[in-house]
Amino acid sequence: MFGHAATIRLGPIEPGGSPQRGTAMSTVEPVEDWTSDFEIFDEEFVNDPYPIWKDLRDSGCPFARTERRQTTFMPTTFEGVRDIAGNVEEWSSHSVSVTPTPISYDDDGNRLRSIISSDAPHHMPERQLMLPFFAPKAIEKYREHTQELCRELIRGFIEDGHADFAGDYARQIPPRIIAAILGIDPDRSNEFTEWVQGALELGLQDPEVREHYSEIIRNFFVDEIKDRMENPGDDLISFLLSAEIDGEPVPMPVIRGNVGLMLIAGIDTTWSSIGSALWHLATHPEDRQRLVDEPELIPTAVEEFLRAYAPVTMARVASKDTKLGTQEVRKGDRVMLTFPAANRDPEVFEDPEEIIIDRQKNRHVAFGSGVHRCLGSNLARMEMTIAITEMLAMIPEFTCAEPDEVTWAGGQVRGPRYLPVVFPNRTAL
Predict the structure, then answer these.
(1) What is the mean pLDDT of the chain?
(2) CA angle 65-413-173, nearest 5°?
(3) What's the per-residue H, E or C state across the chain?
(4) Backbone phi, then psi, for 342, in 5-degree steps?
(5) Alpha-carbon gap, residue 376 to 223, rounded angstroms
(6) CA distance 143 to 141
(7) Pairing of β 420-422 and β 162-164
(8) Which of 163, 164, 324, 384 could disulfide-link 157, Cβ–Cβ 3.0 to 4.6 Å?
(9) pLDDT tens, 142-185?
């Protein structure tokens, strides 16, 4: 069911330039033993990690280990992932990247801190501050905008009879919705996506590229924050500038950290989720046709796509010496919260390798677990549901043109980056 495909890589850049599609980023040493020397950038793992996780579970390995880059552990079970996510006493969130990356600071030496990279006592008050902005009622005001955006994107290629559903469609939706929430220019969505890919995708293996794009994002929001101070609106940046925690203004490093997080987390994760769902429908005609015939089933199918193709892996850092199963963990060691692996655990999910679009018992952890569970889950669900609904309404019949040419990104966020699809020519509505 899960075929291998060639891995896409963003190529080298010059300052001010763009990552180039299809250029090899770097080579990695082959893996001889996944239990003791795993490699998350291995081509086989990026393209299809599920058989590897299954083999590790079946061989009795609940926690794989590697010394590449830094001592890092990789849980393969639902229980292992959930227990670490809930253990805030022994596992810190101050560094959530799956590879060691530098901490960002402002010019005064203050750490830029977001809600996903903060521990107690800061985390909960800052999270509660932002929760109302992403509550179900709050995101409803973006529903019509999302619907019309999806229809407009489809109109752009519906008469061609072919499209790249990853680049032409899935990639285009989240940055424009996040732009509306942040009050930033939606016409710069391609730039935003490039920045996020550079910082979060290519940058995980190339520190120079990561810093290049991270600096662009930091500087962009410095200017946006200055603008909101003079011209406040009803966007998230303006809200944070006027908000208080315990009677005090929100610290500027917290504002900067969280608006940067919204751009990064709000684009790549949902883009990947939409793309994975469309890849499934383009390669499983029986599921596509059933959703065409039963559109009321789409929200249930979305939950199954989230379970089966959960895009995000986060990390935690040991705040003290501890243990994972029988393995010793030293303070500073890293662990990957492999939510995609947890969602395929047969101890929790019946027939976990099967994608069952009307699955009823589905308590997946695609949005994380514990106090750091994804703040934007309601928004992501809304975008996914509308993206699939509008696609099936306007182009009910489509298929993957060249399955072997589909390319995937991996590491922190996994999803298709090139998804060639063909369909009967239709007149734009």
Answers:
(1) 91
(2) 175
(3) CCCCCCCCCECCCCCCCCCCECCCCCCCCCCCCCCCCCCCCCHHHHHCCHHHHHHHHHCCCCEEEECCCCCEEEECCHHHHHHHHHCCCCEECCCCCCCCCCCCECCCCCECCCHHHCCCCCHHHHHHHHHHHHCHHHHHHHHHHHHHHHHHHHHCCCCCCEEEHHHHHHHHHHHHHHHHHHCCCHHHHHHHHHHHHHHHHHHHCCHHHHHHHHHHHHHHHHHHHHHHHHCCCCCHHHHHHHCEECCEECCHHHHHHHHHHHHHHHHHHHHHHHHHHHHHHHHCHHHHHHHHHCHHHHHHHHHHHHHHCCCECEEEEECCCEEECCEEECCCCEEEECHHHHCCCCCCCCCCCCCCCCCCCCCCCCCCCHHHCCCCHHHHHHHHHHHHHHHHHHCCCCEECCHHHCEEECCCECEEEECEEECCCCCCC
(4) -60, -35
(5) 24
(6) 6
(7) antiparallel
(8) 163
(9) 999 999 999 999 999 999 999 999 999 999 999 999 999 999 99
The pLDDT tens digits of the residues spanning 338-368 come to 999 999 999 999 999 999 999 999 999 999 9
User: Directed axis angle between helix 285-293 and helix 377-394, to 10°?
Assistant: 90
Query: Whose CA is closest to 346, among 79, 138, 82?
Result: 79
**Rounded Cα–Cα distance for residues 372 and 127 (Å):** 9
Which two three-digit tokens encode residue 402? Answer: 């060249």
Tokens 């010059």 locate to 14
Is the bond preceding residue 49 a cis peptide, omega within 30 degrees?
no
CB neighbour list of residue 235: distance below 8 Å, 6 or more residues apart: 180, 181, 182, 183, 184, 228
DSSP strand pairing (314-318 vs 334-337):
antiparallel
Query: Tens digits of per-residue pLDDT, 29-81?
Result: 899 999 999 999 999 999 999 999 999 999 999 999 999 999 999 999 999 99
Helix axes 285-293, 252-283, angle to 10 degrees: 100
pTM attached to this predicted model: 0.92
